[in-house]
Amino acid sequence: MIASNEKISASNMKSKKEYINEIVCGHSLTVMKTMESDSIDLIVTSPPYNLKNSTGNGMSHNTKSGKWAGAALQNGYSNYNDCMPHDEYSAWQHNCLLEMFRLIKDTGAIFYNHKWRVQDGMLQDRSEIVKNLPVRQIIIWRRKGGINFNPGYFLPTYEVIYLIAKPDFKLAPKANAFGDVWEFKQEMKNSHPAPFPVDLINRIIKSTTAEIILDPFIGSGTTALAAIMNDRKYIGIEISEEYCKMTKKRIATFNIAEKQKSILNVI
Ligand SMILES: C[S@@+](CC[C@H](N)C(=O)[O-])C[C@H]1O[C@@H](n2cnc3c(N)ncnc32)[C@H](O)[C@@H]1O
Question: Would 33 be classed as within a structural domain?
Fold first, then answer.
């Protein structure tokens, strides 16, 4: 199980303060364990979905052709194959959520994006992962399109976002008017195989008054970018060096463009 293999040397131990506005390249659980409790206002994340561990004719780990041939996640992530035994995966994700819950303040919340799917003809929701955690709401993220050719059930067109909140968490004024079904197109202009749409993360961040935002599976850095756009602070964790570089480059490019805009405004 990943958790037991994740070791970090004492010299790598950092306090939470040092991670502010940093992208940390490492295992999310290991890195989170080095962070202080009650130090984070908001967590927004989308973990790997374990899509390559499939019972169906979909995205199994040895599928090189067929129905998923064109799917972006066909080859998994750059440094992670997304194919764990289901129970192990659920236990790992549950442990990650427990760790996230330890990190958030009493006013904090976790927005945890996941996908339900059909395995062996039965709906596999994610109740095992979120068990015993205070799920306050499930937001439906309605996406456009989707890929599924299974004649046994309707084409899935949404993902879920679990809002897991500590007792004193409150939305920003007027944010509750967004309702609980959100429609955002998938992000297409991003070479990461499973990026968040920036608008989705903007919606989440604007709906809170959070100052420090953590994404423990930050991928291409969308959460950090949205945090910067909204004048908030970010902490990102990502296992793949390639995606860490991608994120840092994306942040730098955005910051340069913002600087140029403000210079042009002064002129
Ligand atoms: C669904 S993607 C997140 C995409 C991100 N929301 C974005 O907008 O680009 C999940 C990410 O988790 C990373 N990952 C997988 N295992 C990890 C681990 N143990 N620790 C940290 N990151 C991990 C993958 O490399 C992948 O980039």
Answer: yes
